[in-house]
Amino acid sequence: MEPLVPRYGNGTLADVLPSLLAGMDVPGTADTLGIAGPTRVCLLLVDGLGRRLLDDHAEDAPFLASLGADRITAGFPATTATSIASLATGEPSGGHGIVGYSFAVDGPDGEELLNTLRWHRHGENGDLRAVLVPEEVQPHPTAFERAEAAGVRVRFVAPRDHRGSGLTRAVLRGGEFHGVHALGDLVSRASAALREPGRALCYAYHADLDALGHVYGPGSEPWRCQLVFVDRLAAALAEALPPDAALMVTADHGMVEIDDPVDFDTAEDLRDGVRLLGGEVRVRHVYTEPGALDDVRARWSGVLGDRAWVATRDEAIARGWFGPRVEDRVRPRIGDVVVAARGGLGVVRSAAERWLSALPGQHGSLTAEEQFVPLLVVRR
């Protein structure tokens, strides 16, 4: 089994907004996905709605299933912060630099392991926005900023506690943020954004399907019940579309269930020579002590065998995992060794990441289950 390397340039999340904005005459964009056309679009991102999962549970989502079988790849790692950054900037992780759930980054006081969803030191509390300024960690202009500069009205409809967060500041710049409480005001706010005159782009985000997949497992009864609500959410947004508008539905990653955990915190052979461990259960950035790279790579390969793809930083970059190019400022953020899980493997940390390690549902790697996400279109 070979890794599913994302189809950068013609089939990833990074290609979605440039393709949409080409239909709105935004300079420097191209419709590589063939989806341009409407000048008023709501783009709904459903966290955790993998294409394979949607296909397997189509009976729970008849509306979404009726929209066809288009699919794209998420990008690597297939995790929320990285995928939203790719969607928002139009670049793979090797360009925007949000290379995972957590990764090493240089700060004014030395190396920090940044948790990108909470923007604090991984495993600790404490806001790092003043130390690791989000706009500097991810300095590229966003597709939303380019759209706004071209005269497109941009609206963000997302949970209210996302306003001003580190990740929001890093990748969701440009436009007007509307914080919502539940599904009702998400539909109301998104619909109102498309009823305003002129060209309009509304980005809407729903997180709960991913949360239940993590807690109960993808395909579990609670997950399937939530998928029913997601289907109704999409149908409600479609029904509220004004003339000459479109709804597009996608996701940031799929998900698999872990049944083969390997505990880094109790495995001395994996810890030897490692100064820092980033990433998450399905994708690990392994930062090595000076001179220990070859030994660490050999030990991890020996312990995990064919249950994971294990590559050095240079090998992972050469294989295109992080995109066709990786900027110099981004290279040190990638682990000296990159470990992408196969099958049901998860590299857990029973002590340092107790809550995360206990979750049955995980994602991030280069399998079809994690990489393929839907790209569904409704036009009025």
Main pleated-sheet profile: 6 strands, mixed
Strand % is 15-25%
- Enumerate the spans where pLDDT stays under 50 for 5 or more consecutive residues: none
Main structural class: alpha/beta
CATH topology of the largest domain: Alkaline Phosphatase, subunit A
Indicate the overall shape.
globular
CATH architecture assignment of the largest domain:
3-Layer(aba) Sandwich
Report the CATH C-level class of the largest domain.
Alpha Beta
The total tally of domains equals 2
Radius of gyration: 20 Å
Q: How far apart lie the N and C ends?
A: 42 Å
Please give a structural write-up:
InterPro entries: Alkaline_phosphatase_core_sf (IPR017850), Phosphodiest/P_Trfase (IPR002591). It comes from Actinokineospora fastidiosa. The protein is an alpha/beta fold. The protein has two domains: 13-257 and 367-379, Alkaline Phosphatase, subunit A, CATH 3.40.720; 260-360, Gyrase A, domain 2. It contains 16 helices and 19 strands. The strands form six sheets. Strands 7-6-8-1-9-19 form a six-stranded mixed β-sheet, sandwiched between helices. Helix 10 (208-216) packs antiparallel against helix 11. The longest helix is centred in the middle third of the chain and has 19 residues, at 221-239.
Summarize the structure.
This protein is an alpha/beta fold. The protein has 16 helices and 19 strands.
